[in-house]
């Protein structure tokens, strides 16, 4: 959760378990960024959002993960989200400043669970655009999400088993 907010050598300020999580997150990011499926999914957003197309695909893939029946039921996603927040509550002392600011909203609005809803995903897409330099209008992102929903979902379903296997192996290597 905090990896995107920790830059450079600051990762080494954390204990080995947190450092392993940061490294896993970065390995997953690298695997994802270089995968052909992701490059294909980015093409739906690239004409409008250029370099931010990857961030938008991340959000949309979080939605598809949240609704993937082989991974989560509605109840199990809710239980998972509550377990994550309980674990994060114990770690607030190590939160980077930006994540510490955002976390109360994340927990209160249950962002993890709300990826299951298209409305929650739309809010996340709007958030990416709002935080991006040089971008102002999130409406095209939402329109593209709905317009290409089935195609991007199919890309996700092809990609997910590879990512899951990669992440499991990397986590074993890092522990």
Describe the structure.
With 175 residues, this protein is mainly alpha-helical. The chain has one domain (9-72, 116-174). The chain contains 10 helices and no strands. α1 packs antiparallel against α10 (149-174). It is globular, with a radius of gyration of 16 Å. 21% of the residues are buried.
What is the count of β-strands?
A: 0
What proportion strand? Answer: under 5%
How many structural domains in the coordinates? Answer: 1
- SSE order in H/E notation? HHHHHHHHHH
Q: Report the span from N to C terminus.
A: 18 Å
For the largest beta-sheet, the strand count, sense and barrel status come to: none
Structural class: mainly alpha
Number of helices: 10
- Radius of gyration (CA) equals 16 Å
Mean pLDDT over the residues: 95
Approximate shape: globular
Uncertain stretches of 5 or more adjacent residues: none
Q: Percent range for helical residues?
A: over 70%
């Amino acid at each position: 959760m905090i990896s995107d907010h920790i830059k450079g050598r600051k990762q080494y300020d954390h204990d080995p378990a947190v450092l392993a999580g940061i490294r896993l997150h970065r390995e997953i990011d690298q695997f994802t960024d270089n995968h052909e499926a992701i490059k294909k999914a980015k093409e739906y957003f690239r004409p409008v959002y250029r370099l931010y197309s990857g961030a938008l695909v991340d959000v949309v893939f979080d939605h598809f993960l949240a609704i993937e029946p082989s991974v989560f039921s509605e109840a199990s996603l809710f239980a998972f989200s509550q377990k994550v927040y309980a674990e994060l509550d114990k770690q607030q002392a190590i939160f980077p400043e930006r994540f510490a600011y955002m976390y109360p909203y994340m927990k209160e609005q249950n962002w993890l669970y709300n990826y299951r809803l298209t409305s929650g995903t739309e809010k996340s897409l709007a958030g990416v655009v709002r935080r991006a330099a040089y971008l102002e209008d999130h409406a095209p992102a939402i329109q593209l999400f709905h317009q290409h929903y089935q195609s991007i979902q199919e890309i996700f379903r092809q990609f997910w088993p590879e990512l899951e296997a990669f992440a499991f192996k990397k986590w074993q290597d890092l522990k």
